[in-house]
Amino acid sequence: MLTTKEDRYNGLIIDFESTYLSSQEFKLALISLISNSKKEKKSLLWLDLTTQQSQYIAIALELGFKFHNCEATRTTLTHQLKEGAYIPVSPTHTVGVGAVVINDKNEILLVRDHIHSNHSIYKIPGGMVEHADKLSTAVEREVYEETGIKTKLIKMVSLLNAHPYRFNKSNIYIVFQLEALSSEINIIDTHEIEVALWLPLDEFFAHKEMSQFQKDLVKQALEADGVSLIENKEYFSKKQHVEVYA
Questions:
Q1: For residue range 149-162, what is the model confidence (pLDDT) as tens digits?
Q2: Could you tell me if 88 and 165 are in contact, meaning their C-beta atoms sit under 8 angstroms apart?
Q3: How far apart are CA 228 and CA 244, in angstroms?
Q4: Which CATH number is 144's domain given?
Q5: Which of 109, 119, 227, 241 is an S-S bond match for 245, by CB 3.0 to 4.6 Å?
């Protein structure tokens, strides 16, 4: 017997954590659930399986389930019970952050990866937003890991949406301006970062090996008002990690 709970799309989420059902038992239980769900005029089924339950994936596919999204240790499948039933789109974007950090000497913080492109000799620090990250947490962490500089977020200054990116997904790249709270460079992530340095702003803009893209990002940070992180507890008290920039 497979237990379920309802979702907001007239669907059922299969609550299934067992690894002890035989393949035949699982198949029979899933056939029964599909039949009963159709009688109840449900629109879709959701099935989340971990790597420990991988023996059930082929059975689900045989019975009409399709892959929806996948992570390192789990995959989600859906079964459309009604033709045209709405299935929420799978995750479409990765999110990256970049940091414009300028100290009181009018120097900008820059890095170079061990594996870097030929487009620019240096770039502003940054990296990928990890699962459940706040944007503010992510950008401050990436600056620290790549340079050892502690920072505080000032404002969001630009956003870039690109497609295609890795594995046919899209990417959103968000650039922030941050205040430097320390000055001594000490690269933490030495596997990724080859060089980190403070460079005078006038040298940065005049540098022939600095890409125009990097220069435009910094110019935008210096000239634009941007948007700031605001308090929002009264609006989203029941949710975690909600950030509002305005």
A1: 999 999 999 999 99
A2: no
A3: 8
A4: 3.90.79.10
A5: 227
